[in-house]
Amino acid sequence: MKRLIIVLLLALAGSAVYAQAQQTDSLGFDENNKYIYYQVAAQPGLNADTIYKRALNFLKTAYTKDKLKLKKQDDGKATLMGEGGFLVSKKALVSKHEDAKITYDITVEVKDGKYRYWLTNFVVIPYERDRYANFVPVNGKKTPLEHGLRVLGQKDLDDYLEKVLVNSREIGKRLKNFILSPAPATTKESKISPVIKKDW
Length: 200
Fold this sequence. Notes:
By secondary structure, the protein is α+β, with helices and mostly antiparallel strands. It has four helices and eight strands, in the order αββαββββββαα. It has a single domain, classed as Alpha-D-Glucose-1,6-Bisphosphate, Chain A, domain 4. β6 and β7 form a beta hairpin.
């Protein structure tokens, strides 16, 4: 009897650890019932100022402005906010084409020895073929990912959720690389003296 109880307790503890591990790197819901990808990362040996500067460098230079850009920075609270988006492709018979763009907001907060970041406010903007056979965003049609089931259907929603998770992980890895590497030194541009045409 004691062995059975011990086995059951170990099984419950194992499943709790597995569930916790699953939650740490997956999409969840925040207090506003919006999808969120939330991570906390420890960086021992780095102070908040260093992490902040490197995270700021990430938001300014890691991606082109149409993929990720800095929206707001609060030096006092050590908080950075950005917005970005990525394209989701759909495979046709022999080729791929843009199916939608998913936009998101990212927030990064730093402290001594650690930082946290989250991506949320995912919005799906569908694409359609225009009269020139190019795929372009549909004007005025935006669907928050939370409402995706009734608007997009289960298959498309599952596909978009998978793409959101993959892209969120990729953004997190890239942010970590920026935090671990020293920010490039800012070089002062040499001043060019004006040409005076009077003296010749």
